[in-house]
């Protein structure tokens, strides 16, 4: 059972963080235990949306946060639950599933929500633009990361 609110995890050492690539997590893979936020995102989206395909990418290293942070994510969710729903409704389903994380540890979440038919016709994941440094002045990110270390 997952906690109702997940606190931010401590960053891993900067040496490990600098060599870690983006992680592709599909429904059959066990997530990295050193990444609790990523694990919870994967578990909650799997439980709520029963995806045919799921990718969770920690993009925190692309932003002005401490090495090893779990604060910026991109997800690709392919689910039949999206059939007939406009994009805004699909995003709302994802946001609702991750409500606790979005109000605590996760500062940014980019969502691609596709139906299985859309995925079959275009199986690609969009890339995030480079960070322009906007989070450097956002003290809520620092507070959330600090709260996870307490």
Short description:
The chain is α+β, with helices and mostly antiparallel strands and 150 residues long.
Question: Which structural traits does this protein have?
Answer:
150 residues; alpha+beta; GMP Synthetase, Chain A, domain 3; 3-stranded mixed β-sheet; disordered N terminus
Structure in words:
The chain has 150 residues and is α+β, with helices and mostly antiparallel strands. It has six helices and three strands; from the N terminus they run H-H-E-E-H-H-E-H-H. It has a three-stranded mixed β-sheet. The model is unreliable at 1-31 (pLDDT under 50).
At the fourth level of CATH, the homologous superfamily is BolA-like
Number of strands: 3
| Outline type | globular
H/E element order: HHEEHHEHH
**Tally of separate domains:** 1
Question: What is the residue-averaged pLDDT?
Answer: 76
Question: Which CATH class applies here?
Answer: Alpha Beta
- What is the count of helical runs? 6
Structural class of the secondary elements?
A: alpha+beta
Main beta-sheet strand count, sense and barrel state: 3 strands, mixed
Helix content: 25-40%
Strand-residue proportion? 5-15%
The CATH topology label is: GMP Synthetase, Chain A, domain 3
| Order of strands in the sheet with most strands | 1-2-3
The CATH architecture term is 2-Layer Sandwich
N- and C-termini, Cα separation: 22 Å
What are the low-pLDDT stretches, counting only 5+ consecutive residues below 50? 1-31
Cα-based radius of gyration, to the nearest Å:
15 Å
